[in-house]
Amino acid sequence: MTPTIANPPSPLEERIVCSIAAAMKYEVPANLMLAIAEKEGGRPGQWVRNGDNTYDVGPMQFNTRYLSDLAPYGIAAQDVAASGCYAYDLAAWRLRLHIRNDGGDLWTRAANYHSRTPRHNAVYRADLMKKSLKWANWLSARFPTRDATAAEVGEVRPTR
Length: 160
Hints:
This protein is mainly alpha-helical. Helices cover 52% and strands 5% of the residues. The chain has one domain: Lysozyme (Orthogonal Bundle). It is built from seven helices and three strands.
């Protein structure tokens, strides 16, 4: 009998699994990470040239401008361009830095992933808010949360 080999995950499955895992690892909201992954919509191996002569690379469209910060750790463009969850980990790491260190509300900080230029940030921010709500609903429908403070052990309450 020949052993069966599972098919690799589809790009959407990889995006979802990797985004949630990275969000948990870097303690950023999973719905926000999923929204950014959807918004960026890159593919493994993809390089998109920007007007400022930088490139957005891979599934999370990680800008090459940030690679100089990562070079001391041995992280290069081909690492963020590859398939798998590594690019999502790097994106969650960067998102966490924006959330912790940048000014403005959460949405502006998260939109800094795309751009700190106010007009670009505002457009990205508005779409990110819509996508985040969609993903929050998606997560809530699939991953019910148990409230440990509920009156009865095991009682499931919505987390909204």
